[in-house]
Amino acid sequence: ETLTLLWSVIVSIYCVGGMMGCLCSGYLAAKYGKKKCLLFNDVVLIIATLHTGFSRRAKSFEMILVGRFLEGIGAGIHINAHVQYAGEISPKKLRGFVNVTCSVFLALGKAVARILGLRDLLGTEDMWNVLLSFSGFVALIQLIFLPFFPESPPYLLLQKGDKDGCLKAMKQLWGEGNYHTEFDDLMKEKAVTKGTKIMNVLEVLKEPSVYPQLSTMLLLLLSLQLCGLSAV
């Protein structure tokens, strides 16, 4: 019974960390930018990987517990900040496509993880710690290459008021060209959102103007949960 309780806590602590990461991701992304938020998240995932990777050698379930909790926080931050950053740095004609691919690759990642967890692959007594450390390897790749990308243009203009930095980021991301139309759209958005504060979860649920967007996101996420992936 003690062992069952212990492993149940180790499994569920990931969701607790994910909830905390989701709740603070909006504040972190607005204050420090999506790029810095993702870099911070990569560091958290690498630290979590070290905990889970060395837990078997140290024979410490506490290290697994801490590592799973940190991985949950990292996943909660990443699933929000990454979607925002990927959408904001994409060209306008590809923005919707890129936003949808985030959900597709999320489901694909779950499927790949379940395949790697089979007993014929990494789901063995000798390799389970390698399986739990796999996310740290992906985070390390992003930590190496992400600094070469600029901050998202909407954040630079709407949050920082850096017009020159915004235009420079557009040219770096999309190549040389005339982006005055996109810049004017951002300026209009800045004028509309001027003076509005960042809402928390309860305030969003009470705001009727976001119900269509909220319903669309809930329908998409619920569809992913009901597509049969969990049963597989």
UniProtKB/TrEMBL annotation:
Protein name as it appears in the record: GTR5 protein
Key words, A-Z = Membrane, Transmembrane, Transmembrane helix
Q: Which Pfam families match?
A: Sugar_tr (PF00083)
- GO MF terms, alphabetically ordered: D-glucose transmembrane transporter activity
SUPFAM superfamilies the record matches: MFS general substrate transporter (SSF103473)
Major facilitator superfamily (MFS) profile domain span? 1-232
Q: How does it sit in the membrane?
A: Multi-pass membrane protein
Annotated Gene Ontology cellular components are: plasma membrane
Q: Does the keyword Membrane apply?
A: yes
Which spans are transmembrane here? 6-30, 97-116, 128-149
Which organism is the protein's source? Answer: Nyctiprogne leucopyga
What gene is this protein a product of? Slc2a5_2
Name its GO BP terms in alphabetical order: D-glucose import; dehydroascorbic acid transport
